[in-house]
Specification:
The chain is of the alpha+beta class and 455 residues long. 52% of the residues lie in helices and 10% in strands. The chain has 23 helices and twelve strands. Helix 16 packs across helix 17 (330-345). It is elongated and about 80 Å long. Bound molecules: adenosine-5'-triphosphate (ATP) and magnesium ion (MG). Magnesium ion binds at residues 59-60, 72-73, 75.
Length: 455
């Protein structure tokens, strides 16, 4: 357990405060230091404070610093209006129409400065207009406390006040940080209805932080998963990138399946995973996700195209196989299957065209990498997507779906000089064009022509 949290907890238990008052932890009682906050964010907060405004670090920045992790970005919350902020910073632009935010730009970093949000002003029960999959109400500015209760999870609603370097907690976030719990603020059902993406955020933070999801927060999520289909496909795409390219793709996938989210967002993949008894498709997908996590850990680039090509591969492969059995050529069947699977997936998650083009290339390369005779191998090698296609095939080989020899052949071919390459092509047995034998055997049907047809 983090020792500062333990100390805080012990003191708090001895001296409970009324629920409505915030818990305020002095600088001596927590580990958040200006040294660990981006100097740009510190600069922004001090300039706000010097102009007479309240300025706080909030959200993931505070949460991660309290946990001893490195924050991804630093967000600032203030009682200054966006116009006040704009007047203070030359390098500032206001974004958003309904609720305006200030972005303060520095070289290589943008600090988001948000004015405290308040409650809905109309005094009604609060059913707002649905926009972008979220219930939005006319935003009004508010106090820090009102701002806190509008946030999603308690651990995301902690403030670090630059004026006195205290941590301010209105919602029991410190307690939940201590318990490793993700708890929605307020009534979980209502909060998910307001914005179903919070269900995905629960899974993302659980995987990233290794936290448990609090019981009510979890129960409501199991119940309301269907609401995700109402979220605009473009927003879901952005969310998928955060979930799968954040370094915890495997854990995220497993949690998404446990809560039924994966099947809702990728119904074709879910169906194909269930259809396939032999076990290797899930092995392939898990390997691809493991590989993604490894690359993120090593600081290597990861592309959305490769990720989505992997997630949708199994339905594409199965459909292509059925088309081949109906006599469509291998390349054409992959092409048609890819089109069809993408077309259907598009209604839920919209993958931008620049990525779907690459996905199709990666899929088609799975067939192109098989024909290596004559000049074919050299041609494939210079294909702009060769590397991705080859990596994809390696994962398929590792999960028992593609012949190991084929993958090994390409591994050697890339390292070989011109003369060796010619020898490798010349040495190809005609049998090298055979299809993956394992799958063939498993799929064999009764022969179309009976050996002894009845008269
Ligand atoms: P990270 O940046 O590490 O992914 P984060 O907690 O900073 O995590 P962001 O998406 O950057 O997450 O959002 C910043 C803060 O805004 C959150 O901590 C939370 O307080 C608030 N927030 C973001 N999205 C929502 C939402 N859908 N509903 C309510 N509050 C939200
Ligand atoms: Mg953030």
């Amino acid at each position: 357990m983090l020792s500062w949290l333990k100390r805080f907890w012990d003191v708090r238990m001895r001296d409970p405060q009324p629920v409505s008052a915030p818990v305020i932890v002095p600088r001596s009682g927590h580990p958040v230091s200006r040294k660990n906050i981006s100097s740009n964010a510190v600069k922004v907060m001090y300039r706000l404070k010097d102009a007479g405004f309240e300025a706080n670090l909030v959200g993931g920045g505070v949460r991660d610093l309290l946990l001893g992790r490195e924050p991804k970005d630093f967000d600032v919350a203030t009682n200054a209006t966006p116009e006040d902020v704009k007047a203070l910073f030359r390098n500032c632009r206001l974004i958003g129409r309904r609720f305006r935010l200030a972005h303060v730009y520095f070289r290589g970093e943008t600090i988001e400065v948000a004015t405290f949000r308040g409650h809905h002003g109309d005094g009604g029960s609060g059913e707002g207009e649905v926009r972008n999959g979220m219930v939005v109400r006319d935003n009004v500015y508010g106090t820090m406390e009102e701002d806190a209760v509008r946030r999603d999870f308690t651990v995301n609603a902690l403030y670090y006040n630059i004026a006195d370097h205290t941590i301010v907690d209105y919602v029991g976030g410190l307690e939940d940080l201590h318990g490793g719990l993700l708890r929605l603020i307020g009534d979980p059902r209502q909060r998910y209805r307001e914005d179903p993406v919070r269900m995905l955020r629960a899974v993302r933070f659980a995987a990233k932080l290794g936290f448990r999801i609090e019981k009510e927060t979890e129960a409501a999520m199991l119940e309301l998963g269907r609401l995700l289909t109402g979220v605009p496909p473009a927003r879901l795409f952005d969310e998928m990138l955060k979930m799968f390219l954040g370094g915890q793709a495997v854990a995220t996938f497993e949690l998404m399946r446990r809560y039924g989210q994966f099947g809702i967002l990728f119904p074709q993949t879910e169906a194909s995973l269930e259809r396939e008894e032999q076990g290797f498709p899930i092995t392939f997908l898990l390997r691809a996700l493991e590989n993604t996590d490894l690359r993120v850990a090593q600081g290597k680039p990861v592309t959305p195209a490769f990720l989505f090509a992997a997630i949708l591969w199994e339905p594409v492969r199965q459909l292509a196989e059925r088309l081949r059995e109906d006599g469509v050529s291998p390349i054409q069947s992959l092409q048609d299957a890819g089109d069809q699977v993408l077309e259907e997936q598009r209604t839920i998650i919209s993958v931008p065209r620049r990525f779907t083009l690459q996905m199709r290339e990666i899929w088609l390369l799975q067939e192109r990498l098989r024909s290596r005779t004559g000049k074919r191998a050299s041609r494939v090698l210079s294909h702009p997507r060769f590397r991705a296609g080859y990596d994809f095939m390696l994962l398929r080989a590792e999960s028992g779906e593609e012949q190991r020899e084929l993958a090994d052949w390409w591994t050697s071919f890339q390292d070989a000089d011109q003369q060796q390459r010619e020898q490798m092509v010349a040495g190809l047995a005609p049998a090298s064009r055979r299809r993956s034998s394992r799958r063939r055997r498993s799929r064999r049907r009764s022969p179309a022509v009976q050996p002894n047809p009845a008269p």
